[in-house]
Amino acid sequence: MIRITPQTRLNRVLDLQPDVVAYIVALNPHDFARLRQPLMRRFMSPRITLSRVAAMGHVPVAELLDHIAALTGAVVAEGELEPVLPQSSREPPAWVTAADPRTTHTINLLPLDATLTTDPLLPVITAIKELTPGAVLLIKHQWEPQPLYDIWTKMGNLAWFSAQISPTEWWIWVRRYPDE
């Protein structure tokens, strides 16, 4: 029997019971409908913790864990602390408003998002690793990349800001902190 916590990765529970996918998608169809496609499920689900799923689905973590446990027979581990999840600030930081479009490298993921046939993480991580101190990257994406906030936090030395431009377009600015 599987034991689940806020830190359990989504992929660990998706295969336990087909109804888990339907439940997760129903929480936030815009963000999670991609999980119905095997390729996207393979790319996305190992990167997302259940606490991040709860945040993206706008439900309390305990409620999410209890519902998954009821669907799958999993056991919710008691006493596990919910992590504080990194988020984008609500207002653009000064470095975003000061970013020069002529020197800001842009990655447009929208064509990839439309087909869902390629992992969008690879070009993003490559571009971020190439960022020089103080440089800014603009990512155009169909979704707010909340799971990437967790990855970027682990990478360290990065700041980001996300803004929804339209119902199906987000612009995400990422900056490598300048050397001190």
Description:
The protein has helices at residues 11-14, 18-27, 29-32, 38-44, 50-57, 61-72, 94-97, 110-115, 121-130, 146-155; strands at 3-4, 75-76, 105-108, 136-141, 158-166, 169-176. It folds into 2 domains: 3-76, no CATH class; 94-176. The chain is of the alpha/beta class and 180 residues long. Helix 5 crosses helix 6 (61-72). The model has no long low-confidence stretch (mean pLDDT 94). It has 10 helices and 6 strands, in the order βααααααβαβααβαββ. It has a 4-stranded mixed β-sheet. A two-stranded parallel ribbon has the order 1-2.
Topology, element by element:
Elements: E1 3-4, H1 11-14, H2 18-27, H3 29-32, H4 38-44, H5 50-57, H6 61-72, E2 75-76, H7 94-97, E3 105-108, H8 110-115, H9 121-130, E4 136-141, H10 146-155, E5 158-166, E6 169-176
Parallel strand pairs: 1-2, 3-4
Antiparallel strand pairs: 4-6, 5-6
Helix pairs in contact: 5-6
